[in-house]
Design a protein that fits this description.
This protein has about 350 residues and is mainly alpha-helical. About 60% of the residues lie in helices and about 0% in strands. It folds into 2 domains: about 140 residues, no CATH class; about 170 residues, Farnesyl Diphosphate Synthase, CATH 1.10.600.
């Protein structure tokens, strides 16, 4: 059953819907993905938290999930057009994913694996119903997932995969082939799309496959936008085989502006991401109501980001090409109406 009450047997069929007035009138305010922090994300009472583990929980929660940073993502994290409960669930998921990434990227390097392990232990306690000491999850970001997990039946594996992706980031900083990079995206990106399908009550294996294509494309677009930033963190997501084929070196990526061979490589990789995004975009046409709006927003965000890369002449070293909100709004409306 879709959120708008459409029986499951009709979700993938029927004529193309007309764009609802709310979508047709999408403005910068509607596209803005920064809601106020939902009540579900507010920290509950710490009375039940055992004192001996409070420090570890505090270390994890010190990684600010950054709800104000949601507006900086390529795609709208939780459109204001969505029902309040779904927006709260999506923001709780975003808080967990953002915190996991921040542990992997911003925590002191010698503490990252420990914090990721503790986060996974806390996640397991959520699904087990309590922690080893019987107190339940100790971290704010895991406790905030509780309502979404319970109400939407989200399995644990996608969340665990996001943690594993950040463990991988601690030991792998280069990828030899595009297939190797796709393997990383299966951990770092695809789980988010599967969680979203559960949030909207429309998960199926067919939809999950389409969602994987969309999410991998979004991850690739972000990698190509952030080549310079990633290099400063000693990470290169451009496959080594492709760099060699196009005559690019790591030294080329450290320049203040992209030389021709780097621009040509980025154009090639952006075309790959576009093809994957287009392959997964028909997912929109299988959905109705709020789920259709949300997924159209994600696809639109990817298209707007890739358009920004092209508009910069594929020079991603001069600065991060940022999608324009007007372009994002237009892409969202088009994706919603076309269903792809």
């Amino acid at each position: 059953m879709a959120l708008d009450g459409t029986p499951a047997s009709r979700v993938s069929g029927g004529p193309r819907p007309e764009a609802p007035s709310a979508v047709a009138a999408t403005s910068d305010a509607a596209v803005d993905a920064t809601p106020s922090t939902p009540a579900a994300v507010a920290a509950p009472s710490d009375a039940a938290v055992d004192a001996t583990s409070a420090t570890s929980a505090a270390d994890v929660d010190a990684m600010d999930p950054g709800f104000a940073r949601a507006s900086g993502e390529n795609f709208p994290v939780a459109l204001r057009l969505l029902p309040t409960s779904r927006r709260q669930y999506l923001m709780a998921v975003y808080g967990f994913a953002r915190t996991t990434d921040d542990i992997g990227d911003r925590a002191p390097p010698d503490q990252r694996i420990r914090l990721l392990d503790e986060l996974e232990d806390d996640l397991r306690s959520l699904y087990a119903g309590q922690s080893a000491d019987g107190a339940g999850p100790k971290t704010q970001v895991v406790r905030a997932l509780g309502p979404a997990v319970t109400d939407c039946g989200i399995p644990m594996q996608p969340f665990a995969d996001l943690i594993q992706a950040n463990r991988q980031d601690q030991v792998v900083s280069r990828y030899q082939s595009f297939e190797d990079l796709l393997g990383y995206c299966r951990l770092s990106a695809n789980p988010v799309g599967r969680i979203v399908l559960y949030v909207f009550g429309c998960f199926s294996e067919r939809r999950a496959g389409l969602s994987d294509s969309v999410c991998t494309a979004l991850q690739l677009a972000e990698h190509w936008q952030d080549v310079a930033e990633d290099l400063r963190a000693d990470r290169i997501y451009l496959p080594a085989q492709d760099m060699k084929e196009f005559g690019c070196t790591e030294e080329d990526l450290s320049l203040g502006t992209a030389p021709p061979q780097v621009r040509t490589l980025i154009a090639f990789e952006a075309d790959r991401a576009t093809a994957m995004l287009d392959a997964g975009a028909p997912l929109i046409g299988t959905l109705r109501g709020a789920a259709r709006v949300a997924v159209a927003g994600y696809v639109a965000g990817g298209r707007a980001a890739l358009a920004a890369i092209a508009a910069a002449g594929h020079d991603v070293l001069r600065g991060t090409p940022a999608p324009r909100k007007q372009r994002l709004a237009g892409e969202l409306l088009l994706a919603y109406v076309r269903g792809r």
